[in-house]
Design goal:
heterodimer, A: alpha/beta, Rossmann fold, 37% helix, B: alpha/beta, two-stranded antiparallel ribbon, 8 strands
Chain lengths: 323, 405
């Protein structure tokens, strides 16, 4: 056990798997697969495994995604880290190829690959193209892809191990705002399921559901509400597809109130899916969702920070819903 | 004939036919290893020496030098603000070192008349030089970089998306790839409506690796579009040397694939850039199709911001924490700074007796003063209203707030 960042935790998982599997590859641009943490060796996948297996490409996310997909089809495990600047550039590779090939080939094709897709979401000043978060919904909408979104270094490590070992293509959404987060993470290799939400707080008054980069504000609001005497049940989705309907339904059966929180745009945000699934299974509950308005993120921090859901918004909405 | 022989012969021929002062200037350039072929074989065969911005008046030459200085000091003022004012919120990608490229290109363009008449420029995430050379108001730019409500784009753009279509400055694009394809769309519209405009797309060495590079040039060549791809090869895409993403030294050679002219130009020499741009613009206006210009250039600062820089001093040196794969050695930065576009244009104009030292100094001082004042004006501008974030999504109205539940 040692204090580890998001990046260190994930690279530790990958390093272990790459040492076991000499065929496994890693493709990146801009973001070098390098991480350090006090008292632990520096991890550098590029120098450890060499440029035959670990490549810094040109700015061509289409190729990055296609490359790992092709590697997977040819029988090698493969991971690519696509930074937020180029995220949706490779959309077709995932939507029309990775997601469909298993089905289109009647079960013949296998793609044991992981697409790490970075999202900013949290950065005022970056403007339009560099501060989007809506892609969580885009990817979760694609059949044939598992889409996960860890919100802690511990989950990120365990879910990365599971994603690499999973025989299906997995989209591993990386909320860049969580990069500075550091916590105690086990040194040994372990798996965390790709289909289970995590209950972060237990209560009976209201269920609050969030994911990824939104979780720190959700947890902050949870604490504030608890201090004010509200019994809050807080759920971190962790996986958008498959979505852990059972955990969600059980919780709202108890609380009868559901508030979802998303950093992506309101229309068709993950919370919309959460509410739909719960509403199909629970009678007499009340619902509310908080999300980024259906507007591109403007550059000015005054506008952006006002638009981005925060703990105060969550506290306000929860209070109204329970009130 | 090898390329270097061809170069030597062109240079010597130019020497024979140029005036004494120009000869001295050329020798000084040759001493700095500066002569790079324009590759204009047609002009060569016709006895055209194709040199030294010969169609430009003294006034136009001085304007070019002034533009270079204005870009330089806009950026240096921004660098110093970043380094000395913790409250400054701009997150600029500095163009310092590349000024001659935008200046030389824009000098060959029509920069007035809006989108139906002006030549159109598509810019990048490093837009200051492209914008200033096109005539964009520097006060409004400075205000936009600080996200003010009275900024060029009302605080929605920041640095990376500034746009002013009244000047044909179609906007900065923060992505690597789609820009040139979109630019060919504008070129297609121009050809379809029969106007005389041309479209310039700026892109870096990083754009070569994208599928969009091929798409843009292939379609521009097939359709003979009035399109000029100005590829500013500053050797690094983000934090990696271009050898990580380009299998040849001269990206301009890619033009052969499309049967269009591919020109390598010394991006530090504004007159050479102008010559290449002028030829490409004339070709495009005449309906002869696109040109790929590769300007060899260099940025004096890192990909983003001013790490390694000191206030009041030119250039950034030392470790860039993000450049783990491909680190820029200080000697490389200094070697390029020894061929500074400001010095090259200044020395040329003094040598040609277009300017004297006092006038050149005065132009620099005026540029510096203008930029300090522009940023000071920007600092006094009002902040954006939070709720305005819901506007400008569609042409009409605004969208509902959703963040409060």
């Amino acid at each position: 056990m040692a204090r580890k960042s998001f990046m260190y935790s994930v690279l530790e998982a990958v390093q272990y798997e790459m040492r076991q599997d000499k065929n496994m590859i890693w493709i990146f641009e801009l973001t070098p697969p390098v991480a350090s943490t006090p008292g632990k060796p520096v991890i550098n996948l590029e120098t450890e495994f060499g440029r035959k297996r670990v490549v810094n490409t040109g700015i061509d996310e289409n190729w990055m995604a296609g490359c790992v997909l092709g590697a997977g089809l040819a029988g090698s495990k493969a991971v690519t880290y696509i930074p937020y600047q180029g995220n949706a550039m490779c959309f077709q590779m995932l939507q029309n190829h990775a997601g469909k090939l298993r089905s289109m080939t009647g079960g013949d094709a296998a793609m044991p690959v992981v697409f790490i897709l970075e999202m900013t979401g949290q950065t005022p000043g970056f403007a339009g193209q560099h501060s989007d978060y809506e892609i969580d919904t885009y990817y979760a909408h694609i059949p044939g892809l598992k889409t996960v979104i860890p919100s802690t270094p511990t989950d990120a490590k365990g879910m990365m191990v599971s994603a690499i070992r999973d025989p299906n293509p997995v989209v591993f959404l990386w909320a860049d705002a969580l990069r500075p987060m550091i916590e105690d993470v086990p040194d040994e290799q372990y798996t965390t399921p790709l289909d289970k939400a995590a209950i972060r707080a237990t209560g009976s008054d209201i269920t609050i559901v969030g994911s990824g980069g939104g979780m720190p504000e959700v947890l902050k609001a949870t604490e504030q509400l608890q201090k004010a005497g509200m019994k809050v049940e807080t759920i971190d989705l962790r996986s958008l597809k498959p979505m852990d309907t059972e955990t969600l339904v059980k919780s709202v059966q108890k609380t009868k109130r559901l508030l979802t929180v998303d950093q992506s745009y309101y229309t068709l945000c993950p919370g919309a899916e959460v509410i739909a699934r719960v509403a199909e299974n629970v009678d007499g509950a009340r619902y509310k969702r908080i999300a980024f308005p259906d507007a591109p993120p403007p550059a000015a921090p005054e506008m952006f920070l006002w638009m981005r859901p925060n703990a105060n918004h969550i506290v306000g909405a929860a209070t109204k819903l329970v009130g | 004939m090898t390329q270097s022989n061809e170069l030597a012969q062109q240079t010597s021929n130019r020497n024979r036919t140029s005036s004494t002062s120009r000869r001295i200037f050329l020798q000084s350039l040759a001493g700095a290893g500066a002569a790079i072929s324009l590759g204009s074989k047609v002009a060569w065969a016709n006895g055209e020496i194709g040199y030294w911005a010969k169609d430009l008046t003294n006034e136009q030459l001085i304007n070019m030098y002034t533009t270079i200085q204005r870009i330089r000091w806009f950026e240096r003022t921004g660098v110093d603000k970043m380094l000395t004012e913790p409250g400054y919120r701009g997150y600029n990608h500095f163009y310092v070192g590349q000024e001659a490229v935008a200046t030389g290109v824009s000098a060959a363009l029509k920069n007035t008349g809006g989108i139906m008449e002006a030549d159109l420029v598509y810019s990048t995430h490093r837009p200051s030089g492209h914008a200033i050379a096109k005539g964009v108001d520097v006060k409004k730019m400075a205000a936009e970089y600080e996200f003010r409500a009275t900024g060029l784009n009302k605080g929605y753009a920041g640095e990376m998306h500034i746009a002013d279509k009244s000047l044909g400055f179609m906007g900065a694009d923060g992505m690597i790839g789609p820009g040139p394809v979109i630019a060919t769309g504008s070129a297609f519209a121009i050809r379809a409506r029969g106007s005389r405009q041309v479209v310039v797309n700026y892109g870096g060495d990083g754009t070569y690796a994208t599928p969009h590079f091929h798409s843009a040039l292939n379609n521009a060549a097939l359709l003979k579009l009035p399109f000029i791809y100005v590829l500013e090869n500053n050797l690094y895409h983000q934090y990696a040397h271009y050898s990580y993403s380009v299998p040849m030294k001269d990206i301009a050679t890619a033009a052969k694939t499309y049967g269009i002219p591919g020109v390598v130009v010394d991006g530090q020499d504004v007159f050479q850039v102008y010559n290449a741009a002028k030829e490409a613009v004339e070709r495009a206006r005449a309906g002869e199709g696109p040109t790929l210009i590769e300007a060899k250039t260099y940025r004096y600062y890192n990909h983003w911001g001013a790490p390694g820089a000191k206030a009041g001093e030119l250039g950034a040196f030392g470790y860039d924490p993000l450049a783990i794969t491909s680190f820029r050695p200080e000697r490389e930065v200094r070697a390029w700074m020894a061929r500074d576009p400001v010095d090259i244009s200044r020395n040329a104009l003094i040598s040609w007796k277009v300017l004297d030292r006092a006038k050149a100094d005065a132009i620099e001082a005026a540029a510096k003063k203008e930029m300090v004042e522009a940023f000071a004006w920007a600092d006094k501008q009002p902040f954006a209203k939070p709720e305005d974030g819901l506007k400008n999504v569609f042409v009409e109205g605004s969208v509902p707030a959703r963040q409060f539940g």
